[in-house]
């Protein structure tokens, strides 16, 4: 069962009920009526409130339009039940939902307090293709922690993100829906006793990408401040799966699937607007056969002005974002558990390399060379993995680092740094708690096995919303972890500090460039008294490798082999359970670059080593160049006799330094090329 639907069912039907009291509220559009729900206290629920007009007919592939007011009619909007989710395909390929789907839900704690409550707006996950706001019940989080929770739907798939590369469909309609929701909250939330000056947006996966896109979009920098804090759970605009750089290609494909070909783009889009939404979702599935993420965030020239890693180098944008928001960002330790079918047969270096080639093939033209580079950085030549299980762990780690950890830490480095960064308060976390069997049986968590023994992608969501307190069979540890997560998230929403004195086990330190400290939930952090611990330098060398050496954005950037070195090491990634340990140890792998790429910094000790090595390499290269020039001078006569002589560049070891000249011109493809369709995760 889909994790989101499972949470919805569990939270709605596990031991809660409704009082007879109806509650009326005013909104800018008119009066609404909600209901009071009994939990441990009372929570007011307002479900299915419209925040934008139905995006149908001529409004399909248009920015959201205002919903017509009903205030003059004297009618009262029935906000006692959720409305339809947006059109999407379920796991069987059946299409569900309705285009009339732009509705929100508000959960308000019912207490005698007179002060305004902080507001938390949840942006649902689902790869920008599926899910719904109503699948996430905010009742427990609102009641237990004294905050207002807002959930909502936004347009998905091709209906939400089709971009033809011109004025006929500019894409990002789902993101514009989200912005309209943020504006609705600013206009109305005070009527629900919410504080418009304490608004936190939080999301998981695609919702996390969305939240951070809003933070860097120039369209949220002008005028009133729509939100004040950001929580990103397993997603970043720097994630390769969250951003599409060739949307025109996939727009052409779905137009072809719909039979609207041999027309001008204007006529083609008019043809597409006559299609039933269900049919468009089915055509979208045909496109997804060749690409898992064809319809996601793209450059539209307005909300997203360039690929994200270029956007964040804009001087004016960086200036505007100085200290503007506060951030809480993190990942789970087994994010890439979905790679299990590819990893289960990995038993040795050959299997590891094969796995890398399979996963990298659709993203790099010279994927075999890239896989070799990854192997050099992840396999300790002195003490390589010695068992099949260790090779499997290494495979999971490499996939997780590339797909989730590096992009998320990269963003955290950016927002927390001075100089070229946003100079903002930031916190980072690692969620490592393995859900109990009760959550697995309920379809909420990924089944554990002999390899996967931690938190997989989106496992943390159930703990954010307090599901262990409603689920029969959930363990005491599940509830302890959930208490800590709910406490930290809401403390952050209330005052920007997740470690408010008196209700946190340990102090969560701010993230900064030098210490790179983070808070771990679960895993080896658990003792009889605590479920969290502070760690530092989370996979630091591997993160630098991915973010600075294999930049995942920008057509043709590729691999800069002229500016990096590798120090062989004893790798500490044989088990995900080790990733919270400091990575700065004797002989640790240091992969760094000279250039403008964004990555984690090195410690002073690492920097000294790197400078020494670069100096040594430069001296060797200068000597080699001098010898080559002398050979050219003395051998010019031979050259004229025998034709042009070329020297083959083989990589050679100099002590522990490996020159990577054999990896010249590794060029990105997939999301960043025009070579054709790709497949993703």
Describe this structure in words.
This protein has 681 residues and is of the alpha/beta class. The strands form five sheets. Strands 1, 2, 3, 4, 7, 8, 9, 12, 13, 14, 15, 16 and 17 form a 13-stranded mixed sheet that branches. Helix 6 packs across helix 8, helix 12 crosses helix 14 and helix 14 packs across helix 18. The radius of gyration is 26 Å and the shape is globular. The N terminus and C terminus are likely disordered.
Count of individual beta strands: 21
CATH architecture of the largest domain: 3-Layer(aba) Sandwich
Strand content: 15-25%
Q: Treating each run of at least 4 consecutive H or I residues as one helix, how many helices?
A: 20
Distance between the first and last residues' Cα: 19 Å
Indicate the mean pLDDT: 81
Going by CATH, the homologous superfamily of the largest domain would be Alpha/Beta hydrolase fold, catalytic domain
The general outline is globular
What descriptive keywords fit this protein?
13-stranded mixed sheet, disordered N terminus, Rossmann fold, 681 residues, globular, two-stranded antiparallel ribbon, alpha/beta, 20 helices
Topology:
Layout: H1 3-13, E1 17-26, E2 31-38, E3 42-50, E4 76-78, E5 88-89, E6 95-96, E7 103-109, E8 117-123, H2 139-145, E9 148-152, H3 157-161, E10 163-166, E11 169-170, H4 173-188, E12 194-204, H5 206-216, E13 229-233, H6 247-257, H7 265-273, H8 277-288, H9 308-311, H10 315-320, E14 326-332, H11 340-343, H12 349-360, H13 367-378, H14 388-416, E15 426-431, H15 437-441, H16 460-464, H17 476-495, E16 517-521, E17 532-536, H18 540-549, E18 564-566, E19 591-593, H19 604-634, H20 636-642, E20 653-654, E21 657-658
Parallel strand pairs: 2-4, 8-9, 8-12, 12-13, 13-14, 14-15, 15-16
Antiparallel strand pairs: 1-2, 2-3, 3-7, 5-6, 7-9, 10-11, 16-17, 18-19, 20-21
Helix pairs in contact: 6-8, 12-13, 12-14, 14-18
């Amino acid at each position: 069962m889909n994790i989101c639907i499972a949470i919805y069912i569990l939270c709605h039907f596990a031991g809660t009920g409704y009082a007879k009291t109806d509650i009326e509220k005013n909104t800018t559009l008119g009066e609404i009526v909600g209901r009071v729900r009994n939990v441990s206290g009372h929570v007011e629920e307002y479900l299915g409130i419209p925040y934008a007009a139905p995006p149908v007919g001529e409004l399909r592939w248009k920015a959201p339009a205002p919903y017509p007011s009903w205030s003059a009619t004297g009618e009262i909007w029935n906000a006692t039940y959720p409305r339809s989710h947006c059109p999407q395909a379920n796991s069987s390929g059946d299409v569900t939902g309705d285009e009339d789907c732009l509705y929100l839900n508000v959960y308000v704690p019912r207490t005698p307090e007179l002060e305004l409550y902080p507001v938390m707006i949840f942006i649902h996950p689902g790869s920008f293709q599926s899910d719904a706001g109503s699948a996430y019940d905010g009742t427990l989080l609102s009641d237990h922690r004294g905050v207002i929770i807002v959930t909502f739907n936004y347009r998905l798939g091709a209906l939400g993100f089709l971009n033809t590369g011109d004025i006929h469909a500019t894409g990002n309609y789902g993101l514009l829906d989200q912005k309209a929701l943020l504006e609705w909250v600013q206009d109305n939330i005070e009527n629900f006793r919410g504080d418009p000056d304490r608004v936190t947006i939080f999301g998981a996966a695609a919702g996390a990408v969305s939240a951070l896109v809003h933070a860097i979009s120039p369209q949220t920098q002008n005028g009133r401040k729509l939100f004040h804090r950001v929580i990103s759970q397993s997603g970043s605009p720097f994630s390769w799966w969250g951003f599409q750089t060739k949307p025109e290609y996939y727009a052409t494909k779905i137009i072809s699937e719909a039979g609207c070909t041999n027309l001008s783009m204007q006529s083609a889009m008019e043809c597409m607007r006559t299609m039933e939404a269900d049919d468009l979702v089915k055509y979208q599935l045909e496109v997804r056969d060749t690409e898992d993420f064809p319809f996601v965030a793209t450059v539209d020239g307005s909300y997203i002005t360039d690929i994200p890693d270029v956007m964040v180098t804009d001087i004016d944008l960086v200036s505007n974002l100085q200290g503007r928001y506060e951030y809480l960002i993190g990942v789970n330790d087994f994010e890439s558990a979905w790679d299990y079918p590819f990893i289960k047969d990995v038993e040795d270096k050959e299997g590891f390399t094969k796995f890398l080639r399979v996963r990298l093939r659709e993203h790099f033209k010279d994927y075999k060379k890239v896989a070799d580079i990854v192997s050099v950085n992840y396999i300790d030549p002195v003490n390589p993995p010695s068992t099949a299980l260790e090779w499997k762990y290494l495979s999971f780690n490499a996939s997780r680092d590339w797909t989730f950890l590096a992009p998320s830490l990269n963003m955290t480095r950016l927002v927390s740094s001075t100089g070229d960064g946003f100079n903002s308060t930031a916190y980072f976390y690692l969620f490592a708690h393995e859900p109990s069997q009760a959550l697995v049986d309920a379809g909420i968590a990924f089944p554990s096995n002999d390899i996967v023994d931690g938190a997989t992608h989106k496992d943390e969501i159930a703990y954010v919303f307090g599901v262990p307190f409603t689920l029969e069979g959930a363990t005491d540890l599940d509830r302890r972890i959930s208490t800590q997560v709910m406490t930290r998230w809401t403390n952050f929403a209330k005052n920007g500090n997740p470690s408010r004195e008196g209700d946190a086990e340990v102090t969560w330190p701010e993230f900064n460039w030098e210490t790179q400290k983070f808070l771990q939930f679960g895993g080896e952090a658990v003792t009889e008294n605590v479920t969290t611990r502070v760690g530092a330098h989370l996979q630091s060398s591997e993160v630098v490798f991915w973010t600075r050496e294999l930049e995942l954005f920008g057509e043709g950037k590729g691999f800069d082999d002229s500016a990096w070195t590798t120090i062989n090491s004893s790798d500490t990634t044989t088990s995900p359970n080790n990733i919270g340990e400091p990575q700065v140890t004797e002989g640790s792998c240091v992969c760094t670059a000279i250039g403008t790429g964004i990555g984690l910094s090195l410690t002073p000790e690492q920097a000294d080593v790197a400078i020494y090595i670069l100096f040594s390499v430069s001296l060797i290269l200068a000597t080699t160049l001098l010898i080559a020039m002398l050979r050219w001078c003395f051998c010019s006569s031979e050259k004229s006799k025998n034709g042009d002589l070329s020297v083959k560049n083989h990589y050679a070891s100099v002590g522990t330094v490996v020159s990577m000249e054999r990896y010249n011109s590794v060029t990105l493809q997939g999301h960043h090329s025009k070579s054709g369709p790709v497949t993703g995760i």
